[in-house]
Design a protein that fits this description.
The complex is a heterodimer.
Chain A lengths: L13 H7 L1 H26 L6 H13 L1 H32 L14 H4 L1 H20 L13 H9 L2 H28 L8 H27 L5
Chain B lengths: L2 E7 L8 E7 L8 H14 L22 E2 L2 E2 L21 E5 L8 E3 L2 E2 L2 H8 L21 H11 L6 H5 L6 H12 L8 H14 L10 H5 L7 H16 L12
Helix pairs in contact in B: 2-6, 3-5, 5-6, 5-8, 6-8
Classes of the chains: A mainly alpha, B alpha+beta.
Chain lengths: 230, 258
Amino acid sequence: MTGAAPVAVVAENWVARFYGSTIGRKIVMAVTGIVLVGFITIHMTGNLLVHRGAEAMNHYAAFLKGNAPLLWGTRIVVLLATILHIHSALTLTRRAATARPDRYVRLAPQVATWSSRLMRAGGVLLAVFLVFHILHFTTGTVLPSQFVEGEVYQNVVRSFSITWVAAFYLISMLALSMHLHHGVWSLFQTLGANHPHLEGGRKRLAWLLSIAIPIGFASVPLAIIAGMVR
Amino acid sequence: MRITLKVWRQSGPHATGRFETYQADQVSPDMSFLEMMDVVNEDLIGKGKEPIAFDHDCREGICGMCSMVINGMPHGPHRATTTCQLHMRSFKDGDRVTVEPFRARAFPVLRDLAVDRSSLDRVMQAGGFIGVATGNAPEANAAPIAKDAVDRAMDAAQCIGCGACVAACPNASAMLFTAAKVSHLGLLPQGQPERYRRVLGMVGQMDIEGFGGCTNFGECQEACPKEIGVWTIARLNGDFLKGSLTARGDKRGGGDAA
């Protein structure tokens, strides 16, 4: 009995065998997830400089722009992690869909959290957000009238004064929160870190990050809407 | 008790299935779910109709043969029980009960509610064993094993291979089954020599059989009639990672029954 499943591969080469297996792909998702959580933590901390005014923010932005190895090193690592994260997610999702070709008329989930059930839909929303976000604040392709190269603070204030831009950003942060809530707990499980001493800690860390990171990001448009940052 | 049953009927592996509705009027609350099904079948036989095929064997909750998804829950609504140990007192008079087979690509329907779960046997053949000499049971204290390891190995060893974890999983993943077997053997000294080959072999076969991957929903743990925990899945993942990193080039890693 062989399923023509998209992932199942028994390869001689250990890397192919590892990435060809469902668990290998989950481990890749977990490790790239750690990289991405690390990145957004730093990113969010940097964004908080908006609250200290235009000079602090633009100065920080200029420092990043002026340090090409740091900038491009980070961009390459984050891009690779994102690609691997999404590729693993897509192939595992496709595999899960083929693993039950005849669906139940009734399947009653007992314990699955909303955050776990919305992992895939939320992930798609975050991917769309990510593309928009880069075209918006990095390249200035969308909303070019609001964008001036190097004027990071002013770009942010001008953009978030537009209601739908701020709303889309806040909805995306809600999706990020739910994604982190399940993902952070889940990655411990996937990496085999399940010592009884960790049990409470990994759930608490998931709660903490799923609240702190999105709120840090959301504080920027919220402060602009409230007129505290202008 | 009067129970209205909506049961999946499928005459063979390649036939198109459909739901049929049956009325069970003389149901005692003391009957097990399978006994209630027996009564329905007697009635069908009496009317010259084909009885409903379903799997069962020991009827005392230890063999893992009975299956069925009852009202969306493998083995029905009662926690930590198999279908044969589910009693009609768990339902109310006049209830409508939906009965479906365990559904997964790796569990093809043979007939009605009976599915072929030999994919789990092949996962076992790919590494679910130890290579020590058999014979009389050794003296109990000959091999010192930490209490914690024994307890966890015994918890994992409770797996009866029924496949409820697969049936409950939104991804139709066999991770809890595989993890229970890997943990049960891998926690004990007798299981150490093949520890990492076992993990790689069983996980490889699990993937070949077409089960889905694990996304840590936790539904398997809830459905398991033996209450095996998802801690075994974390352990399986950890052993798979260690095995993959240390057994590079170990061509035997693919298991014997690929």
